[in-house]
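REQUEST FORM: STRUCTURE PREDICTION
Request ID: SP-0412
Submitted by: Lab K.M.
Chain count: 1
Length (residues): 261
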Amino acid sequence: MAKIGCNWSLELFDLITNQQVSVDYIKTGAFGAFDEYFQTMRSLKPILLHGLSHYETAGMKNSGIVDFDRANRLLAECGSPHYGLHLAITNADMAPDMSIKDIPERMAKVVQIFKKKLAVPLLLENIPESPQEIVLYDYFPYSAAEQIAKIIYDNDVGFLLDLTHAKIACMTRGWDVRDYLRALPLERIREIHVNGAGRDAGGFPDDTHEAMEDEDFELLDFVLSYAAPEIISLEYIGTPTEAADEIREKLRVQLNRLNEF
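STATUS: Completed
RESULT:
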């Protein structure tokens, strides 16, 4: 049976302390208010550490900036069972003479560094390919199922499937999402990220981290017929237009429904 994780928020804290939801992990990155809330989070649950503040990706050209001693210390203090790295490369990290055929070699070098230096298993996470994400993070388009599978298998690492990222990539590219999912290395999945998608100001699909809809739960159910993840993590902390009471209620409903899985 998969364990349940959820992004840290004060609304989640209220629900846990009032015993309205049950989670096994709190998910957060080691940046922003991490130090301020670390003791509070850790007193409640183990922490899924996701991000070290450098926008780390499998294609980064400056992996030397990552302090792996700090990373391993944090992973141990958090009780994090693995570490997820985005399977992406930015345009800024592409060398002038690089082509798309050179990307697997670059990613392999970086992935092997993370794999060898981290004290926990490494997972690679698929990225969305929406117009908004490409502009915001400067991502080079690299989300085809065969591209993802090659990096996962060639480097013998686990897979962190972000279900909304997959859905958005398919909406952007015009792919059938279920065919796409079946082509991914589903047997390598260790964790699944879930939330609801929205639209950007231009009306294009975007990873707005909204509350899950019925179609999101149905897609998760579809994936779980092929995969056996150790953890399912809800990436919802509310949207800017939602009040705290609304966020708490949506969190409660989603987490209780996820626990039924």
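NOTES: The mean pLDDT is 94.
Reviewed by: T.R.
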